[in-house]
Amino acid sequence: MSDRPADPAATESTDYPRKVLFVAGAGRSGTSTMAGLMQILGLHVPQPEVAADESNPKGFGEPAWAVAHHDRLLKEAGVQVSDARPDAWFEAGRVCTREHERIKTAEWLEGHFAENSELVVKDPRLSWFLSLWRVAAIRTGATPVFTTMLRPPSEVVGSKQKYYANRLGSAHLAASWLNMLLHTERATRESVADGGRAFVRYGDLLDDWTRTCMQVGETLGLQHVLHARSEAIRDGHRFVDPGLRRMTQGLDDLDLPPRLHELTAETWTELNKLADPGGDTPGVHQALDQLRGAYVELYEEAEAISRSSVVAAEQRTKKAVKGGPGPAAEPSGPATAASPEFVADKLPHGLRAAIPPSVRRGLRRAVGRSR
Questions:
Q1: pTM assigned to the model
Q2: Domains and CATH numbers, the chain
Q3: pLDDT in tens, 173-202
Q4: Is 117:150 a contact under the CB 8 Å cutoff?
Q5: 3-class state of residue 328 by DSSP
Q6: Quick check: 338 and 324 in contact, CB under 8 A?
Q7: For helices 258-274 and 169-187, what crossing angle results, to 10°?
Q8: What are the angstrom distances between the C-alpha of 210 and each of 60, 70, 196, 217, 233?
């Protein structure tokens, strides 16, 4: 690589050129495994990290500050983590252009370069704010590079349903996967002019993590990966568990609407090409642009014919708020079909997003939720 030191053995790791690896992709797609491996190989995950839990016992590899930062920005933009609305990208994009947010993000990055010249930032919310982070990295004199994790959408949906207790259904989760991956791919194309991007199949990472990570290191010029010590390699072998791929259902198992099924399958096929050597080509970009346009059309059609459902949902939520417990009331048991909490969880995301904000806020107060 062009930024590889002429004599690596004589170069301290803190002297490597500044670089920030942003690990993007849908939640439950292997982003934590990638970030964890990069940390083991020598890149620095800004501390403190989000604590591991039963859904991810080996850790998330997520800086707690970045997660809180993203949560706040998503709330301000009115965007969900798994938002299926194409327009959600415009709402998040407005936040990315705010100068004070760019300054705040750059200052946070700057503070962590004292620890290491190569940082890794990962969070499932990251894709919504890629342009914000790209600008922030450049302002610190660092090169932004991107890795997007690819996992079969059926496995992503199944994993979210298992670990996140998502009640919105397979169609919503598949649509949000489409929305996330199609726009993440488009948003990272400009990174080729910076330090580059890499697409990694989760299955490849589990099957042969050393080969896969070294390819990422070569593509993106990550010096800690290229000069990883043998002890780090051993730690990596202990970290990666092929059994992490616990979801094996196929796309047919999701029982999606036909057009959504078709778009999801075609998008997965094209994204896979990006993970092949030399596969990041204009032809694939064009195919993905067409699929993104087709998804926007599908979503707009669904919105256009569901207005009666939106009105009905609004009436139900107003009724639920009016008859629900006061803001200070503690829930007396699990949600039932008549409770506001159940009503909120059962609403399709597209309909929920169309309900006036004042009504949604009232419902959240009624059930004691902040968002």
A1: 0.81
A2: 14-304 (3.40.50), 308-366 (no CATH)
A3: 999 999 999 999 999 998 877 789 999 999
A4: no
A5: coil
A6: no
A7: 30
A8: 20, 31, 20, 10, 8
